[in-house]
Amino acid sequence: MRIVGFPVILVIMDLKTKRRGVVENGDGGEDLVLANLIANGDDVGPLVRLAFEMGRPEGLLRQLTYVVKEKEAEIEEICKTHYEEFIVTVDELRGVLVDAEELKGELQTDNFRLQQVGSALLSKLEEFLESYSVRKNITEAIEMSKNCIQVLELCVKCNSHISEGQFYSALKTLDLVEKSYSQNIHAKALKMLIERRIPVIKLYIEKKVCSQVNEWMVNIRSSARNIGQTAIGRAVTIRQRDKEMLEQQRKAEEQSASGLGDLAYTLDAEEVEEDSVLQFDLTPLYRACHIHDCLGIKEKFREYYYTNRLLQLNSDLELSSSQPFVESYQTFFAQIAGFFIVEDRVLRTTGGLLLADQVETMWETAVAKMTSLLEEQFSCMESAPHLLLVKDYVTLFGSTLRQYGYEIGTLLDALDSSCDKYHLLLLEECRQQTVDVFRNDSNEQMEIKKETDYENIVLSFNLQTSDSMPAFPYIAPFSSMVPDACRIVRSFIKGSVDYFSYGIHLNFFDFVRKYLDKFLIDVLNVTLLEKINSGNISAPQLMQIAANITVLERACDFFLQHAAQLCGIPVRSAGRPQATLTAKVVFKTSREATFIALQSLVNTKIDEFMTLTASVNWTPDETNENGHDYIHEVIIYLDSIMSPAQQILPLDAVYEVGSGAFEHISNSIVAAFSSDSVKRFNANAVINIEYDLQIIENFAEKRFYSAGLGEIYNEVSFKNSLVEARQLVNLLLSSQPENFLNPDILEKNYYALEIKKVVPILDKYKDSPDGIFGSLANKSSKQSARKKSMDVLKKRLKDFN
């Protein structure tokens, strides 16, 4: 231990000696700078770099040498101070070294012994590790085999699901294989096979599902007609129920308004589940939608479904040419209704398979096609009932689909636009029926034998003139034409109301009234006028027509009330002044036209008898108290006219006909005196005309009072209609004819005569010496005075003119 420490002490002492040498050399100031830097732990790098950059490394080396010497001196000083302790420490370290050598020997011995023992154990360990590696490989192989077996089992299960058509289960199995087991398949061939087959299987499932959807589409299309017919049938039931409720309400309101009962309403609500009425299976569609959702291609399936259903819709909207529209329209609209009922449920229940905009697009396409089709078909129709049937079914179609939220306004507008066409056809059909009724009418008063017939013919149209039931058999004041025409009018009203019902107009009474007026004026009244002006009609027939028109005029109120009742509005509303029918005024005008035609016919017939210029001797030698033959013929004819007139016409009409006939007779007599064919006449001729006039006056008075006109027209009888002829004859037979120009006498006795007519007549009046005064001797004074007075009158009249 000591031998080792000796060189160390010599080194320290040598360092101390060198340190002294350095100090003695001087240069201590510069060396202190570097020593301070090192002592403070500062970085001397910049100082070294600066020395080399300035090209003065010698000074730096000298300074470093100085620092080294300084440190050696410090070490030497420390070693001198702790010398003894250092020697002890070195000895101890030497002892430790010896101990370490001994321990090293022991360790080598133990290591040798351990090597001998561990060689056998190491051989066993290697065998164990090899066995463990084999076991681990076998375990991994078993796990891999199990995974493969599970995957193969899932594949078998998937194939089984596919073969059984359980595609959703097959997809779930595939998903399990793909997500849970595919990462653990270390059999590369199997993994590649599965990776190739999964897309193929998914594509196969997609095709099979689409095939099922296609089959479902075919089936649902064939079922759509039944679905639509069922739904429309349900709408018919609802409409009928609502109609009955409205009728009950109307009756209750009328009873309440008349004070016959209390107003009461009942509401019968019948809830009908849609599914209980419309049964159709959407299961294949639900399944396909869910499977495509699982495949992640729901959007593709939505487009596929929409495209194919749109193609089906366009096909359904094509009208078959093998069958007329009037025979196929129900199946056509039922098919469309069924289509959109199915689509509504698809929209509501498939969770987004269809979008609302897509359904709206399909509906707009269908409405546009149906509107165009209806306009085209309506323009070709020639039958009002056919058009009405189509319109009614279309409104049911619209009412059905409106319950599913579809907008039908455009469809109803198309129906409303055909309103004029429908009423034109209806007017034409009713016109033909009216013409047939007029052609078959006997123009004779109806005989009603039973009360039931009276109710059907009279009471059903409010044609009665009394509230009491008449005795039977009852002779009605009208012919069979009236009730037949009323039935036609009633059917026209019903046809018009049926067309407007369930359309876009809620209150359509004014429309019905307008078309009713048009029918009454343009059809019924025009047919009446054609009958009146036909020229081959007798006076009794004209009388009956006039009587019929009077009844029809009265029936207009019933027509209006009936229209109001069918339109569902209160009768009191229909009775307001602005709601009256213009046809009433037109019928009244036509009745006047009938009387004019009747008067013209009677006057024409009277003219045939009153051929005075040819049948009367205007210069007879003697008088005839029995009258001329023509006047008796006229009386016979007038009797044949006045008798039926009293039975058929009202009293005012009888008076009008009689007054006109007798006035025409009077005019004919005056015209005969004024005729150019009569060159002159004598007093005997005037007296004979006087006899004729007396006969006709007596007949006129008899007819006037027998007809019961005395109480109504007591101041102006039929006899007054002969006043012009009477006053002319009185003037010609007057003893003082010159008084004619006396204003008082003229106003009292000759007010009906016109001076310009009297003048030429008086010029023709030339009595002969052998005339009426011939029995007297030589122009008696009476004759002379009368002749002088007549001459004076003639002269005065000439002067007057």
Strand line-up of the largest beta sheet: 1-2
Kindly, what is the distance between the CA atoms of the first and last residues, rounded to a whole number of angstroms? 202 Å
How many beta strands in the DSSP annotation?
Answer: 2
Unreliable stretches: 1-28, 261-265, 267-276, 769-779
Subcellular location: Cytoplasm, Cytosol
Keywords: Cytoplasm, Exocytosis, Transport
Domain Exocyst complex component EXOC6/Sec15 N-terminal: 63-232
Domain Exocyst complex subunit EXOC6/Sec15 C-terminal: 411-764
Q: Main attributes?
A:
29 helices, mainly alpha, 2 strands, two-stranded antiparallel sheet, 75% helix, 801 residues, single chain
How would you concisely characterize the structure shown here?
The protein has 801 residues and is mostly helical. It has helices at 2-24, 28-40, 45-53, 57-81, 83-163, 167-181, 188-258, 274-277, 283-295, 298-316, 325-349, 356-380, 384-402, 409-417, 419-440, 451-457, 481-500, 509-532, 539-567, 571-574, 582-609, 612-615, 629-648, 651-674, 683-706, 723-732, 743-749, 755-764, 781-800; strands at 447-448, 474-475.
